[in-house]
Batch of 2 targets.
Target 1
Amino acid sequence: MKKNKMLYRIVAAVLACAVVALALVTYQSRSSSNAPVAEGAVTATGSAKGMEGDVVVEVTADATTIYSITVKEQNETQGIGSVVCEQLPDTMVAANSYNVDGIAGATVTSDALKEAVKAALTSAGLDASAFAVAQTSDAAVEKTAESLDCDVVIVGAGGAGLTAAAQAAENGAKVIVVEKMPIVGGNSLKATGGMNAADTKYQEALGITDSGVDEFIEDTMNGGHQINDRSLVTVMAEESSDAVDWLDAIGAPLPKVAATGGTTHKYLHEPEDGSAVGSYLVEKLNAQAEKLGVQIMLNTEATEILTENGAAVGIKAESKEHNYTIHAKSVILATGGFGANFDLMASFNPALANAVTTNHAGATGDGILMAEAIGADTVDMDQIQLHPTVYQETGLLVSESVRSMGGILVNAEGKRFCNDLATRDAVSNAELEQPGAYAYIIFDQRIVDDLKSCQKYIKNGLTVSADNYEDLAKAMGLEGDAIQNFVDTMDTWNAAVAAGEDKEFGRNNGIDADLSTAPYYAIKIAPGIHHTMGGLKINTDAEVLDTQGNAIPGLYAAGETTGGVHGGNRIGGNAVCDFVVFGRIAGNNASAYAAN
């Protein structure tokens, strides 16, 4: 018996090694050109810093041709940066260039991979500049027509789309999701804070008794300047606790609870390890959808909603190779907002035409425009939110969690200038009134230790740091009186925290701990376009309404593609609550409609 067990273990180990070897060969073959490797070609490695560490590549090339690119090491986020490492080497080999379009939503990893390949070419003794221009093909791709059938088709694979897909599939529906981008996640990948929710088990366990449904509703209405649709806000608040429980059930718990900007209560639920909530949830939701058999079609853009007798019965979509007609019993739109469609935004506010945006490249309002084409109504389209803490060079959002954990904002004179955790519109407007229309967000090592996003900011070179306030001021570029102003500001803030009262600006949350744990950090930030509050008009069943106020049969929507929930200003943490709550409602009702 012992000999049999030992033999089994040996065979299992050999088979495991064979599987790993086969996987490596398969991966490398995807990164190779069809051209035979010429005599004299050289193989070399190169590396560059990604989001989660170094991206290391091995490149085989000669003076005129890149023959293969293989990613040897990477620790990028699964489903985001990892997709770059899987897909971009093929693109580079086909283009015979490292300078190809990156994958939207994974810019840092895309840039790292390009730099790593460039470094490998240089290391090989080759002229990297010879591969700086991509080759193009004039051959037209002839698309073939393909017809698909399902119960529910979902347009968009961001947080709302993946939530709706997982819920509908959980109910037994056959679900197809089309996503025009090469990765799932959409703008949800940009969410770095948490999910607001009320009356949850996590709040109860922490003894938080003053952050219930009624308070959540009123804070959201007040934050939205009372132009929100109260019925939608009420449903979001009432269903938020169940939404947290559902996430828990699919392996995505949010047990940490904090305050967020614009509220006086603790609703913000975050991952235990301090991860950014967006990428954390996208990974879990995507895994759940795939586990339940959802078909997710990437690089596939929906172009039209199909109707029969006034009801939505499917969509038309296209990829590089196919023109799809997808017949469905119901349709869910989850295409996100239009924060990357500058022409559309400028039609409501011309001042936004050249603004920086935190939105991913695919946030162009496609679902809104397609639905309008079949008679759907919209609401609050002119309500476009600026976020006050955006790193202007890349459009990267600096999480509101930094401030909710005690971080503060100072201007170029080294002074605080507002309630750092007021509503986003109020803080953004205050920043725009400061010298240079920018500010600095200040935090310390205590916050870095508790917040993974801060560790990424440091790793990616966004921060300056020092072991004392005076040296930090100098690292920020402050001069003259501004240096002493900054030191005084930090001392005043720490004293306010000790007293439990911010007499300067009346900040009433995020003052539980001071900024006294060296080293200290600063990031230069300014307002950027962050969220489009307007979109398709829906009812509390997530049904899309027409211009007469009637529900369009078979058509549902959720997430940032809808309007009404957030009014004139979105409270931080409400976007995630919105997409989980209404994503589930859309998934439930669309699957029920399809079953009838």
Target 2
Amino acid sequence: MSHTRRRFLQSAATTSALAAAGLSTGARASAQSSLDNFPGSSSPEPVTIPLGELPFLHGVASGDPLPNTVMLWTRVTPSAEAMPGSGIGEDVTLAWDVARDAEFASVVVSGRVVATSAADHTVHVDPYGLDADTTYFYRFTVVDGPYAGKVSPVGRTVTAPPLDSSPDSLRFAVSSCANWEGGFYTAYGDMARRGRDGKLDFVLFLGDYLYEYASGGFSGFGPYRLHEPAHEIVSLADYRTRYGQSHTDPNLQAAHAALPWIVVWDDHETANNSWRDGAENHDPATEGDWGARRAAAMQAYFEWLPVRATNPSQGGHIYRSFQFGDLADLVVMDLRTYRDKEAQTLRLDQFNDPGRTMLGSEQSEWLNAKIATSDAAWTIMGNSVMFSPLNLITLQENPDTSSIVDFLGEHRIEGIPLNGDQWDGYSAERRRLLDTLGNQGSKVLFCTGDIHTEWGHVINWNGREIGAEVVCGSITAANVNEFIKLPEDNPISHLGEELLRLANPHLRHVDLDAHGYATVSLDRRGVDAQWLRVAGIADPNSGVGVGHAWRWN
């Protein structure tokens, strides 16, 4: 399989290995000794995650916080046969309550909702009338059927601050790329603890909530546990089944129950390297019509996540915005549904073609209008693929090669890019977006997922820094050390990181091996980013700690 993300990781691994040929004998011996008792040297025995008790097997969740409401979600299982994707099961009426306390002594709003097989027995509730900037607790109770009286786990959520307020700070997690077979979701457990302790306002999840591959197709040093269904997911029942499996993870359930999530998809929610009319990992000859597959994937996504948006497969859109007083406006972009096919490797004319788009015309007009009319101190860009250039060599910012850019004139090739699936493959549109952001005048923060590795960039526009980009590591999806079959922080990966720093002057942090997520804390002066790392994704009880911290002012 020719995965672009894999191609980047393999390229980085190969480049690192070639550089490593110059290692001293002592350094090579040190690298070899690091393999002793390394868990990746043998295949693990996959484990099975035990199910909870019927009927609330999949927890509760909240998302898309506004000052007066937040989307609430659960899935009820009406019988042992009515599992996700089954398409069977009786309708179930649920009562829901929202309270100011976890004991529900002070209920502020209640209602009822019906779970049906048409929506895979998932429900969404939008309880308008809540107070802004307030912590609430919520639950669901079965009203009828054999499980009448059964109560869901209690969820905790937080509404956004008033639109006319002036918050001092905003704190949230940045997360992406959770592969069930690649490891255990201990990073989510850490998010849950921070959320319950009031250290995070929300989770910004930027794609690859799950992976579409067949079992064993992309498992790093795993599989540590096996996909359901075992085959590559294509149909609506397939996608529903795999979402249901993901929601049985106790750490993921805890993170959803601890604080609201703001989510958007990348490609693996449908198929690898998806674009407007297809995907790299979709074969019409054997997997049918792309439009039908994408519509099924989108339907399951909207059923299983607490998102307030309308389905693009039904004429709607998932790109949307959120306001946090006058401190920050968050715009969440859809970078898969409308994009042109990715540029071919080393076809620099395609990378810089002014007619190529990632956003599409309608989303681009909406996005530019939102940015231009914002009065906030910060513009936060919810961005599923890396915005900053990722070059083998950077021409424009390198004094030894900047004259090449001047010679090229209107073609404006600024470097030799490594990955056409990122914004590098749509560089003319990236420059137009940068002009909009630069002219608007707010500080800019891009929050990014996708690439499974940690990055921190400064954002330059017309010779000055206007912001930063924070790219989180993956929850579990494989990264460079797993491709070269070495432990984390091995000398070869470190060499690759150094080569990337030399080739990209805007780069301030990179780690090619770590798994975890990032946290961001905004104030009116700057942004603090921390990359939280899981000590070992093979260990379901692994610790999580700060691996790196960076502040941009």
